[in-house]
Amino acid sequence: MRDTFxxxxxxxxxxxxxxxxxxxxxxxxxRLHQHREGLIDGFTKDYGVHRLVWFEQHGTMEHAIxxxxxxxxxxxxxxxxxxEAANPDWRDLAVDWGFDPLSSHRIVRG
Length: 110
What we know:
The structure is a single chain. By secondary structure, this protein is α+β, with helices and mostly antiparallel strands. The chain is built from 4 helices and 3 strands. The protein has helices at residues 28-36, 43-47, 61-73, 76-86; strands spanning 8-13, 20-25, 51-57. Strands 2-1-3 form a 3-stranded antiparallel beta sheet, with helices on both faces. Strand 1 and strand 2 (20-25) form a beta hairpin.
């Protein structure tokens, strides 16, 4: 990753083949911290979607937002194919930047 302040589209998962979330940010490391610590209310917090499984950096925020909107319209199979092309084991990529590994158990919302 060249710079934490680079426009980035990212996919989070609750676990392998689990619930997916598509997002966009100008600071991926800060956003990952927010997701993992439950600082962002909403979908990712409610469903335990915190595992970074794919990301793509862009030259401008406009390009990143356009890409995010396109991916959000994709069906689930296409999103899974995108993840598995780059990360077939659904490894938590955030660990590479010093984040603690997440537990591998499935989150069940009750």
